[in-house]
Amino acid sequence: MATINFGGVEEQVVTREEFPLEKAREVLADEVIAVIGYGVQGPGQSLNMRDNGFNVIVGQRKGKTYDKAVADGWVPGETLFEIEEALEKGTIICFLLSDAAQIELWPTVKAALKPGKSLYFSHGFGVTYKEKTGIVPPADVDVFLVAPKGSGTSLRRLFVEGKGLNSSFAVYQDASGNARTKAIAMGIGVGSGYLFETDFYKEVTSDLTGERGTLMGAIQGIFAAQYEVLRANGHSPSEAFNETVEELTQSLMPLVAENGMDWMYANCSTTAQRGALDWWKPFHDATKPVFEKLYNSVKSQEQAEISITRNSQPDYREKLEVELAELRDSEMWRAGAAVRSLRPERS
Ligand SMILES: NC(=O)c1ccc[n+]([C@@H]2O[C@H](COP(=O)([O-])OP(=O)(O)OC[C@H]3O[C@@H](n4cnc5c(N)ncnc54)[C@H](O)[C@@H]3O)[C@@H](O)[C@H]2O)c1
Ligand SMILES: CC(C)(O)[C@@H](O)C(=O)O
Ligand SMILES: [Mg+2]
Ligand SMILES: [Mg+2]
């Protein structure tokens, strides 16, 4: 473990220098890694591991997603199987169904978890909320997680570009005495940049907060609020969209990603810097109570309950699609589609 100073706090992280791909391949040399589910994380993780030289198979029920797996080069009967068959063949079971679907499939997965096998998650959800999910792994299997901090789509794209997402890892149960090493080897295998250690509870709590907060929920809320104010004051959709979203994603966030917030500020006018330095605090003060409410709702398991109940309904996909369509069909995001189509690289 390398000791890294994160803003004054020292943490131990695993880097690819100290745990190279070669070592990960050695650790997992005798394992058959069965990726169960081919939604978003399934393709990213399985393709990266396959390209990294691991022995990987995919388990996916028949349908559109199965066909996608075939198109991605997984071969039926050789590296692509029905879920039950993949569970049988795998020694490390990567449980990458949606969190709600994991509940339904758990009895089947549990039956396949013979002593000595490992159960791998990419979220702390299933076992942390075991009273709600019923996911209680047998005592004689290793249970660990690697949670890439980003979409499976980005995990794959960055890997192909020779880059990587950072991932957290955690061990829930160490039956073999080797669970932590296996978890790290899996983290390197799926294409992580560096790996930071956590536990299942902290992973699920921070993850649910982040995606409801700044990563997805809060950002849409703030975009919508500013766009509405600009529109109500006579600004055109293109002016409002450019000043709310397009400039952020195309110009300013890449600067933040490159070298931090002060670097982005420093590359804007002193007029902009003066205003931003004055206004970030009122935005902070206005939103902090909302973040506190959100964190408490995660902590009380209310968010887990909502997620399970809503995503277990037979028509949950259709209902999500209606809500996504509402976003897509809003004036702001329709303006966004028009703005994107006019980017020089797209025209
Ligand atoms: N989406 C991400 O990028 C992301 C990022 C980090 C962690 N995670 C975690 O990774 C895990 C997988 O998430 P995901 O977003 O890739 O999942 P997903 O919602 O894309 O679903 C994955 C698969 O589940 C299958 N499925 C759904 N219901 C099923 C059922 N009843 N029986 C059998 N198969 C069923 C689908 O066919 C699909 O292949 C979750 O624990 C999630 O929290 C996801
Ligand atoms: C990609 C995210 C938001 O980080 C992940 O947590 C998810 O649930 O999809
Ligand atoms: Mg999440
Ligand atoms: Mg996440």
From TrEMBL:
Any one Gene Ontology BP term: isoleucine biosynthetic process
Residues where Mg(2+) 2 binds: 207, 243, 247
Domain of life of the native organism: Bacteria
UniProt GO molecular function: isomerase activity; ketol-acid reductoisomerase activity; metal ion binding
EC number(s) given by UniProt: 1.1.1.86
Binding site residues for substrate: 269
Annotated transmembrane regions: none
PROSITE patterns named in the record: KARI_C, KARI_N
Required co-factors: Mg(2+)
KARI C-terminal knotted domain: residues covered: 199-346
Binding site for Mg(2+) 1: 207, 211
Alphabetized UniProt keyword annotations: Amino-acid biosynthesis, Branched-chain amino acid biosynthesis, Isomerase, Magnesium, Metal-binding, Oxidoreductase
InterPro entries: 6-PGluconate_DH-like_C_sf, 6PGD_dom2, KARI, KARI_C, KARI_N, NAD(P)-bd_dom_sf
Catalytic class of the enzyme: oxidoreductase
KARI N-terminal Rossmann domain residues: 9-198
Pathway: Amino-acid biosynthesis; L-valine biosynthesis; L-valine from pyruvate: step 2/4; Amino-acid biosynthesis; L-isoleucine biosynthesis; L-isoleucine from 2-oxobutanoate: step 2/4
Family: Belongs to the ketol-acid reductoisomerase family.
Protein name: Ketol-acid reductoisomerase
Taxonomic lineage from the root: Bacteria, Pseudomonadati, Bacteroidota, Cytophagia, Cytophagales
